[in-house]
Amino acid sequence: MSNDRGRPVSLYEAVGGEETFTRLVRRFYQEVADDPVLLAVYPAKDLGPAEEHLRLFLIQYWGGPATYNELRGHPRLRMRHVRFHIGETERDRWLKHMRTALDELDLDPALDAQLWDYLVMAAHSLVNVAPQDAPGPAGRGDLGITPA
């Protein structure tokens, strides 16, 4: 993809910029707020700061303004998440809610796939609890996280 000047277009620009990422993250956190299991991962009752951090991170990662770095420094995702209990259940629920939010954006399928592939990779990379150490039932089945 390139713009009318022949310059490559970032995914940030291609999906509609800040407005799209704001909608994505807002919808995702609406889902999180209604999920007691995933909500337990968040130390604060107010999800606003977490929402803003994720929104700014995704905007920056996909080619938008570097506001995240200006405010928080290098993302260091694994380091920033190591203090939180993130097992397979939490990962799967995070992905389920993100899939819901992403589906509501109704993006071009190629852009959706590119964004989804990154989100899946990132979610898997943040798991820090071995399955045998994670509380809760094994074998949760399909949580609806496969793209529609």
Low-pLDDT stretches are 137-148
What's the helical proportion of residues? 55-70%
- End-to-end distance: 24 Å
- Structural class, please? mainly alpha
Order of helices and strands: HHHHHHHH
CATH class: Mainly Alpha
Number of strands: 0
* Number of individual domains: 1
Give the oligomeric state of the chains in this entry, treating copies of one chain as homo and distinct chains as hetero: single chain
Mean pLDDT: 83
What overall form do the CA principal axes indicate?
globular
Largest sheet: none
Supply the number of helical segments: 8
Please tell me how large the radius of gyration is: 16 Å
**CATH homolog superfamily:** Globins
Supply the CATH architecture: Orthogonal Bundle
What is CATH's topology name?
Globin-like
Estimate the strand proportion.
under 5%
SSE topology:
Blueprint: H1 11-14, H2 18-33, H3 36-39, H4 48-61, H5 67-72, H6 77-81, H7 88-105, H8 109-125
Helix pairs in contact: 2-4, 2-7, 7-8
InterPro entries: GlbO/GLB3-like (IPR044203), Globin-like_sf (IPR009050), Globin/Proto (IPR012292), Hemoglobin_trunc (IPR001486)
Keywords: Heme, Iron, Metal-binding, Transport
Binding site for heme: 53, 124
Give structural notes.
The protein is built from eight helices and no strands. The protein is globular. It is mainly α. The protein has one domain: Globins (Globin-like, Orthogonal Bundle), CATH 1.10.490.10. The longest helix is centred in the middle third of the chain and has 18 residues, at 88-105. Pfam families: Bac_globin.
